[in-house]
Amino acid sequence: MRKASLHSRDEGDATRQACDIRAKRGRAFILSSIAGGTSVAKAANTVRINQKHSRAWSRWNKYLQHGGIRFDPFLQNPHSRRGIEIRYFILGFAFVLRYDWFGTNRGKQLTAGVVRQYIGSVCQTFVRRGLADPSRLQSGDLRPEFEEFFRACKKVDPAPNRKSGLQTKVFRKIRAPRSKPILHAIGELVNGAVHFAMRACEYTLSADPAPLTKLLTIRDIVFLKNGRPTTNRAEADHVMITFRMQKNGKKEESIVRKRSAVSPEFCPVRIWAGIVDRILSYPGTTLDSPVNTVQFNDGSLGSITSAAVSARLKAVVHKLDTTFPLEKVTAHSIRATYATMLFRQGASLETVKLMGRWKSDAFLLYIRQNSLMVDVSEALQACDTLNYIPVNN
């Protein structure tokens, strides 16, 4: 009995030891997973910081270097500060930014909002370094001198230049014959983009060297027949476009538009089939070719830029209405047009937000009540826009 008891006790000790080992391993697994998640979050945060703050930090360093301060961007060396508090360096930087001294348009005034974003980016870099935010009090409130500076700038800033929606006749007028390849390609792109409320950088080559939104390719466009992919674009009843990366953070978002039974000229399936057919007819193009690809008269391939689309839109609008404010017309007017036409047709704000792929309420800035701004109900009804269904794969 004694041996059996000792044997049972040994088994119990072994069991407890095994449980302890498993518990320790389990704890190590949990801690390891937490560390992994934290490292991924930090890596993602680093990418965002690099994209969003690199320009501001670069200008901050130029500002310091111009003042004879090198290799001390956080001003931790008393010799660099020369008895001046860091917050006053930041305030001086705000003044320099206001006139874009280290930008591409020196002397041109940046708005209070833009300057504030730059200052916020620089100060957040201080915080990430474990230092205090030079622009804020311990309570977290903005320091009075910064409040006064931004308030003074805002008082003299011009009114925001909101992009305008466009009238239906603009989308008809912008079309051009194939004998004018660039104008023809622009006309197709503009008419195709409006059906999906596209951002300028989704269908044209943006001037931004590192856009957050990915330019669409032919591979991103799929034609459907009875719910299944088809290579016969002429018989397709729907077109689906997948937006791989968007500035709102959404990835791999697929949106479907149906063939119009009323108006061939405003049918999204026909328009995008035309774009795909045209681009794939060019020698050397593939499914990875961007949707803004165009072949010039000499046979060479090029890209339609946002600037080219903006210039063409302005020219067309000016021909139709010489009094229209052209500064409100750009390649981004497509989104303003989409938001406004849906709203004017009676769609709810939630529907506009969903179908236009807006994550925030920023689309409310685009909605125009002024009839001068937009009159696209005809195009909307012709294309059955309210029946379009967003699809997420």
TrEMBL record:
The keyword Membrane does not apply. One of its GO terms (molecular function) is DNA binding. GO terms for biological process: DNA integration; DNA recombination. InterPro entries: DNA_brk_join_enz, Integrase-like_cat_sf. The keyword RNA-binding does not apply. Keywords: DNA recombination. This is Tyr recombinase domain-containing protein.
